[in-house]
């Protein structure tokens, strides 16, 4: 019997801390050897002329997420109807992820107001188990009543779900400051990271009302309804309250320098806050929402609507700078698939003439994440290869506590992307291999492309052909965080997190 199941030979291995030309020996789904030459293997995968990267770890993906309406600004007290807003299934999302070199994800278990966590978790566990990606969950907390925080959160933590997700905007998901504080305190007590969508709900509503009253309803006014100050204020508040409680948070989808600077300032004070950004803030602008098309007319801009809004070219340059400084240390996709062309569903849930307020926010990006970041970042000289690996794999795995993921090292899962750094590809929706009817990156030329993806040693994508059995993805239970101290004296001098 051969010593290894598979040897990946002749590639340049990028670890995030330098590159080395070596072979990789894989057995039982794990990396068991890194050596100059490995010959004794059942099969050989030639990586000559290619980079070998850790499989992408995308820790912010909305997949098959049943929700009440879309992620819209919708009117207070008038929540939209109940639908599964993401048209993507775990099977189609897995296919798309593998096509783009990503091998594991963290996605979102919903909570609907007035309900507990566990019934929806049971349903979501079943959905996720049908896919091929390895996965973990963030638990959305949309209604933090005592039974949820005191009884259910410890139960989900016992299952290895160690991050809670909260929204400071969106109807009906947004939390008040007091509710957010309660979540922070519960998270600290039970050892969870809190991830936060930072935008000011009241400010967005006020601007939205004014825009709609003036008859300014088109998709482009989405950006007008939520300028950077709205994000900066909520980021500041989210951090300040987390600092008060001494609870680590990750600020999701940072789109602008003003918000990133709030994070940088807090990091300098020693606050445990991390910042994530996404390709849409590096490759799209608010002007994209001003597009028209023969197919979708004036509605075409809806394809680019996400929150926070894409900004300007100048802002993109500042976000790159905050990446280079290390303030933003994770790049996720925030994949959130709503098709454009289905009347009564997806982006058209409220109809083709819907005002921007009622158009679901979110864009698909699972497959595009690595190619865009590699091309716009590494190929264009904005970041180095090490940074790319850390932003897309090592840092998200470390921050979320996913041992065995995001690393090319002996003992790690053999999750790999074999990458042609010189290949030029024009992005099309077909290449994304998702279930959504468009990609916001249609026509973008990228330099650098995945030619094979391995998940736990199995070749699941080669030359664009995805082959993986549904139901083979594994749940990734997460161990306790080293940087969360659930009990004891707080850094800011208080004795313990007081009950609110
Ligand atoms: O517009 C976005 N980002 N939609 C997805 C939900 C969220 O806010 O993360
Ligand atoms: Zn969000
Ligand atoms: Zn999101």
TrEMBL record:
Keyword Metal-binding tagged: yes
UniProt KW keywords: Hydrolase, Metal-binding
Annotated Amidohydrolase-related domain residues: 51-460
Cofactor(s), names only, from the UniProt record: Zn(2+)
Pfam families xrefs: Amidohydro_1 (PF01979)
GO MF annotations, alphabetized: dihydropyrimidinase activity
Gene3D superfamilies tied to this protein: Metal-dependent hydrolases (3.20.20.140), Urease, subunit C, domain 1 (2.30.40.10)
Annotated EC: 3.5.2.2
SUPFAM superfamilies reported for this sequence: Composite domain of metallo-dependent hydrolases, Metallo-dependent hydrolases
Similarity comment: Belongs to the metallo-dependent hydrolases superfamily. Hydantoinase/dihydropyrimidinase family.
Protein name: Dihydropyrimidinase
The species this protein was found in: Siccirubricoccus soli
Gene that specifies this protein: hydA
């Amino acid at each position: 019997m051969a010593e290894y199941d598979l040897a990946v030979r002749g590639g340049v291995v990028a670890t995030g801390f330098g590159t080395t030309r070596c072979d990789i020996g894989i057995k039982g789904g794990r990396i068991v050897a890194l050596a100059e030459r490995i010959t004794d293997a059942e099969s050989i995968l030639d990586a000559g002329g290619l980079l070998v990267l850790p499989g992408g770890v995308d820790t912010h993906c909305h997949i098959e997420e049943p929700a009440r309406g879309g992620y819209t600004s919708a009117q207070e007290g008038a929540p939209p109807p109940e639908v599964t807003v993401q048209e993507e299934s775990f099977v189609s999302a897995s296919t798309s992820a593998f096509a783009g070199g990503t091998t594991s994800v963290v996605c979102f278990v919903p909570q609907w107001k007035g309900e507990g966590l566990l019934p929806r978790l049971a349903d979501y566990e079943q959905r996720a188990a049908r896919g091929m990606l390895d996965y973990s969950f963030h638990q959305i907390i949309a209604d933090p009543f005592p039974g949820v925080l005191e009884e259910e959160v410890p139960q989900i933590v016992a299952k290895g779900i160690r991050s809670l997700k909260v929204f400071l905007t969106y109807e009906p998901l947004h939390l008040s400051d007091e509710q957010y504080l309660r979540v922070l305190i519960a998270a600290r007590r039970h050892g969870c990271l809190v991830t936060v969508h930072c935008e000011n709900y009241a400010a967005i509503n006020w601007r939205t009302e004014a825009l709609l009253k003036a008859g300014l309803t088109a998709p482009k006014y989405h950006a007008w309804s939520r300028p950077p100050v709205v994000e900066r204020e909520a980021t500041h508040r989210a951090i300040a309250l987390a600092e008060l409680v001494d609870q680590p948070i990750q600020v999701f989808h940072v789109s602008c320098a003003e918000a990133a600077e709030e994070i940088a300032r807090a990091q300098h004070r020693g606050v445990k806050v991390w910042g994530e950004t996404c390709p849409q803030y590096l490759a799209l602008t608010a002007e994209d929402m001003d597009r028209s098309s023969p197919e979708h007319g004036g509605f075409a801009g809806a394809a680019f609507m996400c929150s926070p809004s894409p900004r300007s070219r100048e802002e993109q340059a500042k976000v790159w700078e905050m990446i280079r400084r290390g303030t933003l240390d994770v790049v996720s996709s925030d994949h959130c698939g709503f098709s454009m062309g289905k009347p009564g569903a997806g982006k058209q849930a409220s109809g083709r003439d819907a005002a921007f307020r009622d158009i679901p926010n979110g864009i698909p990006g699972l497959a595009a994440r690595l190619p865009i970041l590699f091309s716009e970042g590494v190929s264009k000289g904005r970041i180095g290869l090490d940074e790319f690996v850390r932003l897309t794999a090592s840092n998200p795995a470390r921050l979320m506590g996913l041992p065995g993921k995001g690393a090319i090292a002996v003992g790690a899962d053999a999750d790999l992307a074999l990458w042609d750094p010189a290949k030029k590809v024009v992005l099309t929706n077909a290449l994304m291999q998702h279930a959504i009817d468009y990609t916001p990156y249609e026509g973008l030329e990228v330099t650098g492309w995945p030619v094979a993806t391995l998940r736990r040693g199995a070749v699941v994508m080669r030359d664009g052909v995805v082959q993986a059995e549904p139901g083979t993805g594994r749940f990734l239970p997460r161990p306790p965080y080293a940087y969360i101290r659930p009990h004891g004296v707080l850094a800011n001098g208080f004795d313990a997190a007081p009950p609110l």
